[in-house]
From TrEMBL:
Domain called EAL: residue spans: 458-694
InterPro entries linked to this entry: Biofilm_reg_signaling, EAL_dom, EAL_sf, GGDEF_dom, Nucleotide_cyclase, PAS, PAS-assoc_C, PAS-like_dom_sf
A Pfam entry, by short name: EAL
Source organism: Lentzea kristufekii
Ranges in coiled-coil conformation: none
Domain GGDEF residue range list: 315-449
Start and end residues of each PAC domain: 232-284
Record's protein name: EAL domain-containing protein
Entries under CDD domains matching the protein: EAL, GGDEF, PAS
Amino acid sequence: MTKPSRRPDAAPPEDTAAVRAREALSRKWSYLLSSVVVVALSRDELDAELGAQLDALCAALHSEPFDPAPFEEVGERLVALGYVNEPGLKRTVDVLGKGLLTLEEFRSSDQHTVRVVGGIGALTCGFTAARARAILDQQESMQRSLLKAAHDAQRDQRHSEAKFEGIASSSTNGVLIVGLDGRLAWGNESISVIIGRPPEPGTRLVELIAPNSIVAFREMMERVLSERGEFEREPMQLVRGDGEFAKVTLTASLLRDDEGKASHVLVMADDDTELALLQGELRRQSLHDVLTGLPNRQFFTTHLETVLRRADPEFGVTIFHFDLDAFGLVCNSLGARVGEHLLQHVARRLRAVMSHENAMIARFDGDEFGIVVENTALTPDVATTMATINADLAEPTYVDDHGLAVSVSAGVVHRPPPDVDPIELLRTADLALRQAKRDRRGQWELFHTNEDTSGRRDAALAVVMPGAWEQGDIGVVYRPVRDLATGGLAGVEALLHWDLSDRCAELADESGLILPMGEWLIRIAAGQAQWWRQRGELDQQFGVRLTHHQSTDADLVSRVSKVLEETGMPGARLTLSMPVGVLGVADAADNLSTLADMGVRIALDDFGLGPRDLAWLSALPVVSVLVPKDLVHRQDARSATLIPAVHDLGVNLCVDGVETAEQEKWWREAGADLAIGAHYGSPLDAGEFLQKLG
């Protein structure tokens, strides 16, 4: 019985949740594998075996540099278990290809996605090679049995001839008895199947050999007749009856008469066609998506490297990275099976739409697809292609009597340089896709190099922000809120400040650091307000702006309540501003109402002065709105006419971004109440701010 094995370097992770996730994946692998193959292990032994192999794969994915060899070893190990067939490999590829990327330990980096894809390919190669060796070993064992039977027949000719003929006739290998003159004396039924016709006795064996194999065949026969070894073995091609060629491996050895003299040559032909087809099918499966039949990300990436090199210098190529809009809604409401049918429908429609172009369509992961188009003078522009795709997908397809229609969002890279790395190219297409999907559906975004440079710089800053905060490089600054009617100080706004970026809050919001950092900002501002109030130096309203994630944070109310309790600041002295765009989220509206019930004053940021924004003022306890910079600079009559509507609802209006005296005058005359901006000075730390006020 094959015993379970555990690699010494494949220790499971220490994190309990990660261990449970791996165990669940290995049990799923064991269950699905045992349903299609028979192995010489009990269920518990198979669970332990596959658990050990999964640990080895995970260790390889974490290793630096990445070495796919453990994946190849696992493929070989599957064959060593015994009776593991093509369905077993297919189940393994399906389970690991999807399951590894669902493990929490591999979700944080696109690098792991590339490694998993490469690892699965290595596993398939290891399986194929081990399977081929097993087949060859079986064949060679049979050949040796036949040779032994033939040699035994020489010692007892009367019994051996009948025995040899019985073995040879039942063999799946082609068997030929050839005279020393090279003419056929006898052949079994299997050789007829291989070459598509029964060989005629007396036919010269060389006539069955394909032209490109004749030289190798003659050299092999010369070695056999010169008795250089027990037998000779060479890959050859035979001419079939239909004119095609059959790939075989010929094994030849001498037969002797009673006196020990050479009398005939025994030739056996192993049909390699099935093995070649198996290898081709396994390779196809490793490069194609099982559900849709489309190329997968690995195949697409390899193809992309080729088309970049051969692209027309004038027209280049275009890469589309698609994502189905609201696909999760379909799966959650109608089930995964309906979602799979929808993915197959989208794959068919994309093929049809792009059928007139030299293009490859691939399915990446989940509901994501990719297309690379080798452009010509007749290729439609990007806008036309996107409009055509979305118009085609807008036609409903029916699954279980449900009429479903979808749209796609896309990131597009048009005419990239031919020497760009395909992995980098897919990253930029994905970046453009994320830009296209921000609060929108059915849109597309063209990648721009300058945006990528800025995005990478911001991403790098976001990564090091926790360390900068811990070291004290990120602080709190204050700026005045002015009363437009009197010019007096109406309040103070507290802001995060970092010398390396003027988008400190936005970067923290993107990285998730804003939740603890935002609470810290409110605590510092409230503590400073109380300090100034107790010393009789300043007693004003203090404001803090909340980001999107802060506004929808389920713990926002408890965070603010804790800060007010710790600092002793009255809730009525704190103004929190929420972006008006988050109010459609239930958690944000609930947070706003609860904070207002606590006495905290609530303002709406990025207020557009439109009818939809005005409607929120009637539904929610808002005391102030902040008009964004673009409207402040516009100074149009429509904005001025809507200010009385804000006042009629009992809400005051603050203009954010006043930079000149002319802007201040225009908004004061228009009826605005408060103003913030560079016109009133730069944000300062607590000491400098109080000194400037004095």
